[in-house]
Structure formats: C-alpha cells, structure tokens
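FYI - complex with D-malate, inputs then prediction.
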Amino acid sequence: MRIDVAFGVGSVTPAETSGRLVVMIDVLRASTSITVALANDARAVIPIETPDDVVMRSKAFERRDVRLAGERRMNRIEGFDLGNSPLEFTREHVEGKTILMTTTNGTPAISTTQGARDVIIGSYVNYTAVLTMLRAALRGGTDIMIVCAGRERQFALEDAGCAGRYVANVTKRITGVELNDAAQSSLLIDRKYGDQFIRLFDASEHGRALREAGFEQDLIACAALDSYPIIPIYQDRQITKLGPDRER
Ligand code: MLT
C-alpha cells in the first residue's frame, strides 16, 4: 500500500496515477470553490483549460443553464458570471446550473489525472468526507496519489499542509503504508500548523497574495473545516457530487 504526494502538477506522470485513487487539492481556492458549488447543488462543474474554451463550450448550452466561472491573477475573468471565490458559489447563483470553470492551477491539475481509478477533489471544507473515502480505498488495497495543484505548477505551502493532514489521518491504525518523500514532508507541514489554517495561509505566498488583493473573507471560508461534507468526483470530464446516484 502506498500514498504518494506530488507537489505541483508538473511532477505527475500518467504511470503514477494509473489505477489509483487520486485526490486533487487546491485549497486556495479552486478545490474549495468546486466543493461549495456542488454542495449548493450545481449540476456539475466542468474544468476547462482556457477562458476562450469556456466561452466556446458555453455555446452548446442554453445560456440560462450555465455559469461561466474562473479567474486569472485571482480576479474574475471579464464577461464571466463568477470568479473563483467560494463566497460567490451560492445556491442562488449555482443551483441546477452547469459551471464551466477555468482557473490558473486548479482546473489544469484535474486534467493531469488520466488513468486514475477515481479522481476526487479535496480541501479543508470537505476534509473528513474525502478522508473517509481514502481510508476505505486504502483498506481495500488501492494506492493513493495526492496531487497538490500548487502555484504556477510549483510547490504551495497550503496544499502541502492539507495533503499532510490527509496522510497523517489516512495512515492512522493502518500499518505498512509506504510514503514517498513528498508525503513525509507534507506531514511535517501539517504538524507545524495543526488546526491553525489561517496561520498556514498567512505563511503561504498565495494566501498572502489573496489577502493583499482583498480576499481575506475567502481565506476564512477556505479554512472552515468540514463546512461542506461532500465528495466531488471527476468522471467523464466533469465533476459531480458523489451521492446515492453515483456511489463507488
Ligand atoms: C488556481 O486554480 O490557481 C487558484 O484557485 C487561484 C485562485 O486563488 O484564484
């Protein structure tokens, strides 16, 4: 049994995700926003590479059925309905809608996960729901890969901290789990910050950049442990909520 962590999507190869349960983490903010959208009953979130492609794809839908969402340099893309703030994905805005979403790091990270057995989206807001699935997978003999989206394809402290929390708790009372070096170092970050997620965010470059750009309320929303206890799952190029109709 193995748990591997990848810091930044650049380091992930299809061979490493093949047959595994993959968790994609972009705590600030794509994972959190996707989770909030689905918890508020968005029909699906479709991750898309570029803003132009979002506009193109939207033409296949009735306008009233879709929301164009995403950011570049943290801010809403011009002409889009929503940015990438979890506070924007309210029931009023997203219920019953398909969200076409492009973000700088989070949505590209999802498409690096080809060949995985399943791909789910992890964050602090749905931490325990995802943890339960990870524990079940590991007990059933499925290896786990945690992909930290990172920032500009590189290491990001907040994603590593969240990954470390998963590694620490998934391996509790399960012996013989092998960890790669990144998984072991993620444990150290989780141990340093513990439940002090805002402290973790304030230590991270992206957390500081969001605060400076006026998104401090987003940091609070992203730190709200287990506030949206759902499991977003990526299948057939879209993310939906794992539930009775999509049990594994
Ligand atoms: C991303 O996907 O790069 C992030 O979610 C950026 C952001 O905070 O908007």
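Residues 26, 28-30, 71, 74, 84, 103-106 surround D-malate (CB under 6 Å). Residues 157-170 form the longest helix (14 residues).
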